[in-house]
């Protein structure tokens, strides 16, 4: 293989490609990236067997071929080079990277040892518009669990609906639900699957100028693929049963209160300072025209912040883990929110005012007095 390309074009891709490079070394080949010529372009691929990334980079090909080499070291070298034309030339066991003033040689491994990212793309089930993608997906993905001992909770349920997809994520203590509209949804009527939350997080990190993202599902290999511009992201679907989340979502409420999410976020931040020494507990006390946000610690003291609000229903109170509240306000981009509850021991539900497509549920904490 012998190709010439601009350093900058390679630099822009390598950072994201390294997201799929294995951090473990049981299989040394997973520490490598695959370089191969393909239809007049250089294709670069990485995988840790959970996710895979492949992307195309414009280049001039003098000799076709393919090879693999250590991803981290190669990335570090390329990022150190000035913006200029470089040449990548491989032999049986090495790859030479040369520019006008530099020359570096890497030991390589045969491409046959590198695992295939996918066998087929599968069925195209939707083209996702990027205009609302970040906002809508971010408002759900953060609620998934980082603990993989319960696989279903580490993923996002994607279920076909008449106007798009239902997205649900939960870690057992909180839950985010979003009805995501897609005009050209071609998924079958009963289709649903669980996508690792990590795949969605990587999807949001793809930096391509194209505005649409094509979504494919391969039932045969149990994979989901997202294609955007010159980049393809591959993930393995989670084979598990998602919890029956509908039964924990309250159907009616005795308290409904409207508030400004930015003011509430600031209040929770202030109270979280004292909450650190008290199991991270923050209390909401609801009054006719305001919410009192408070925390107290026997070893530090206590603090309260009043947030303007409009209450419908009875005055009441409820307590939550401060981290869950801060996560919510950091990931849901809206100004006006509504909080609903039936009692201090029942789940509290946060919604976006005048938007029925989203809700976020948090389990309360029982407090004394």
Task: Give short descriptive properties of this protein.
369 residues; alpha+beta; DNA Polymerase III, Chain A, domain 2; 3 domains; 12-stranded antiparallel beta sheet; 8-stranded antiparallel beta sheet; 25 strands; 44% strand; elongated
Any overview of this molecule?
This protein has helices at residues 7-17, 71-80, 133-141, 197-205, 261-275, 322-331, and strands at residues 2-6, 32-38, 41-47, 51-58, 60-63, 66-70, 85-90, 94-98, 103-107, 123-129, 155-161, 164-170, 174-181, 192-196, 212-218, 223-228, 231-236, 255-260, 281-286, 290-297, 301-313, 317-321, 336-341, 348-352, 355-362. The chain has 369 residues and is of the alpha+beta class. The strands form 3 sheets. A 12-stranded antiparallel β-sheet has the order 14-11-12-13-25-24-23-18-21-20-19-22. Strands 6-2-3-4-17-16-15-10 form an 8-stranded antiparallel β-sheet. Helix 3 runs antiparallel to helix 4 (197-205) and helix 5 runs antiparallel to helix 6 (322-331). The radius of gyration is 25 Å and the shape is elongated.
> What is the CATH class name of the largest domain?
Alpha Beta
Q: Tell me how many strands there are.
A: 25
So what's the overall shape?
A: elongated
- For the record, the CATH architecture of the largest domain stands as Roll
Helix count, DSSP H or I runs of 4 or more residues: 6
How many domains comprise the coordinates?
Answer: 3
* CATH homologous superfamily descriptor of the largest domain: DNA Polymerase III, subunit A, domain 2
Under CATH, the topology of the largest domain can be stated as DNA Polymerase III, Chain A, domain 2
Content of β-strand: 35-45%
Biggest pleated-sheet summary: 12 strands, antiparallel
Strand arrangement, major sheet: 14-11-12-13-25-24-23-18-21-20-19-22
Structural class: alpha+beta
Q: What is the averaged pLDDT score?
A: 94
């Amino acid at each position: 293989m012998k190709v010439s390309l601009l350093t900058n074009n390679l630099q822009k891709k390598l950072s994201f490609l390294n997201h799929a490079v294995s951090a473990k070394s049981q299989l040394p080949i997973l520490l490598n990236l695959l370089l191969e010529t393909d239809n007049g372009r250089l294709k670069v691929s990485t995988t840790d067997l959970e996710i895979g990334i492949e992307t195309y980079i414009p280049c001039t090909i003098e000799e076709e071929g393919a090879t693999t080499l250590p991803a981290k070291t190669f990335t570090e070298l390329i990022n150190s080079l000035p913006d200029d034309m470089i040449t990548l030339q491989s032999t049986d066991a090495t790859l030479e990277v040369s520019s006008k003033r530099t020359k570096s040689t890497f030991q390589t491994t045969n491409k046959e040892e590198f695992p295939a990212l996918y066998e087929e793309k599968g069925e195209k089930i939707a083209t996702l518009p990027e205009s609302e993608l970040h906002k809508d997906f971010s408002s759900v993905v953060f609620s998934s669990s980082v603990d993989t001992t319960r696989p279903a909770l580490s993923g996002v349920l994607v279920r076909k609906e008449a106007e798009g997809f239902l997205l649900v994520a939960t870690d057992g203590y909180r839950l985010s639900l979003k009805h995501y509209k897609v005009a050209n949804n071609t998924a079958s009527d009963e289709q649903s699957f669980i996508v690792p939350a990590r795949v969605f997080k990587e999807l949001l990190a793809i930096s391509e100028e194209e505005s649409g993202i094509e979504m494919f599902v391969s039932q045969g290999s149990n994979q989901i693929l997202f294609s955007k511009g010159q980049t393809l992201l591959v993930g393995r679907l989670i084979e598990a049963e998602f919890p029956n989340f509908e039964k924990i979502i309250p159907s009616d409420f005795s308290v409904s209160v409207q508030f400004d999410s930015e003011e509430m976020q600031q209040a929770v931040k202030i109270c979280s300072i004292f909450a650190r020494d008290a199991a991270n507990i923050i209390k909401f006390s609801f009054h006719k025209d305001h919410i009192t946000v408070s925390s107290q610690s026997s070893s530090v003291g206590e603090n309260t912040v009043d947030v303007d609000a409009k209450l419908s229903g009875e005055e009441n109170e409820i307590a939550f883990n401060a981290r869950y509240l801060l996560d919510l306000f950091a990931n849901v981009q809206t100004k006006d929110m509504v909080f609903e509850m039936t009692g201090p021991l029942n789940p509290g539900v946060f919604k976006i005012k005048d938007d029925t497509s989203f809700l976020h549920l948090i389990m309360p904490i029982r407090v004394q007095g």
